[in-house]
Amino acid sequence: MVDVLVIGGGNAALCAALMAREAGATVLLLESAPREWRGGNSMHVRNLRCMHDAPQDVLLEAYPEEEFWQDLLKVTGGATDEKLARLVIRASSHCRDWMRRHGVRFQPSLAGTLHLSRTNAFFMGGGKALVNAYYRSAEQLGVKVRYDSPVDALEIDGGRFIAARIGSERIEAKACVLACGGFESNLEWQREAWGQNERGEWPADNFLVRGTRFNRGVLLKFMMDAGADIVGDPSQAHCVAIDARAPLYDGGIVTRVDCVSLGVMLNQEAQRFYDEGEDFWPKRYAIWGRLVAQQPQQIGYCIIDSKAVGRFMPPVFPGVQAQTLPELARQLELEPAAFVKTLSDFNAACRPGSFDHTVLDDCRTEGLAPAKSHWALPIDTPPFYAYALRPGITFTYLGLKTNEMATVHFGGAASPNLFVAGEMMAGNVLGRGYTAGVGMSIGTAFGRIAGTQAAAAALKDEAYATA
Ligand SMILES: Cc1cc2nc3c(=O)[nH]c(=O)nc-3n(C[C@H](O)[C@H](O)[C@H](O)COP(=O)(O)OP(=O)(O)OC[C@H]3O[C@@H](n4cnc5c(N)ncnc54)[C@H](O)[C@@H]3O)c2cc1C
After folding, report:
1. Which residue, judged by its Cα, is nearest atom 50 of ligand 1?
2. 75 CA to middle of ligand 1, Å?
3. Is the alpha carbon torsion for 218, 224, 226, 228 positive or negative?
4. Entry pTM
């Protein structure tokens, strides 16, 4: 029998598998995707948010524990477990040497990447290279990997993990790590979680999934039914407004459109609906998917003028372009009179200031609801550009309740040999909101803890068995 079974094939699972193997356990990793689609959402990532008290290789200046904590507190509105959050923050300051030993390489952030050069370490080659490096290292260390292996049930006896099931196949292990993502790719579950709105629409019908199609929440549902303690709200998720032309799954990072804070966002009725300049984009980009989800037909339109071009990472696919605002409205099939009035009211409300996209500047609107608090410049210089945006779900926050040992709990009691990591428990730290790069901080910290604890649980059992 294998010592540690790891279910999942993304960052959290790989961190757990590597740590368990390094601790001397035999490890089998089950990934539901075929080899060419391995790596879950982790293959799409770009960076890791890291605490540091002084400049460190690719990280500039300092990002102390307290600042990281305050950022997390602000975005979650307090929906976080401070003990676990601080554990993640501290772990983010010393995990990179271990990551490097397993082949992960870092690079400085590119110019224009959301003011992240101080706080976030970027992966050379992105998440795909990270995942490939981890698989290579895991295989070299003797971790067994099985693809096309979607686990559909577990055998649990009094909180103790006994075996995993793939159809009629049964795989026993002494300990198990669950790291198989959220339920973001399960559109039926999304529909149920978001329900029907006051307009009679089912908002989730217009959602796109930014990452893998394999995170269907099968084991999350199984664990809920099995009585595991749960944390989070099923409608809370990392949800970004992405290019409405994106595919249903795996559009990845290139579908993101990062110019909202440089322009205005309108809904289908050509009305603004939120402060586009509330805070820096990395702290706000993940609220816009939810905001768009609340609009009629779950669509929004980001409008900029030529002054904004060059101030943000250009999207891969060009937007709609026009020389006049009425022409732009016609191309977007928005009512031109309402569109022009909204833009004229906005332009008239912009107060002169010193525009600086790298600070919370003094360019703001006055007497306008909703206000634009920073970076408010009149949209008056053709050509004008527009991007239609839809809610893009990144990952859901409903998860298994856990503690500093990454243990799964049943009725408040910790399982002796079942652990959880990554998206499947991220809701303990992220009850809502998001700050860029913290998904990987959580998955790396808890993946490593879960792997170590699972190995300890398995090897302890072995010691008893041979005593
Ligand atoms: C486009 C995009 C960009 C992102 N960028 C960043 C970023 O730059 N920084 C950051 O911190 N976060 C980012 N994220 C979020 C990040 O991807 C997640 O926080 C992190 O990768 C989660 O890791 P994980 O291992 O928990 O899940 P995943 O990487 O999604 O892995 C889950 C794995 O479980 C497997 N699986 C699912 N169900 C089963 C089953 N029943 N049996 C067996 N296997 C199963 C899946 O196939 C998959 O391999 C991004 C996400 C997306 C989609």
Report:
1. 45
2. 21
3. positive
4. 0.92
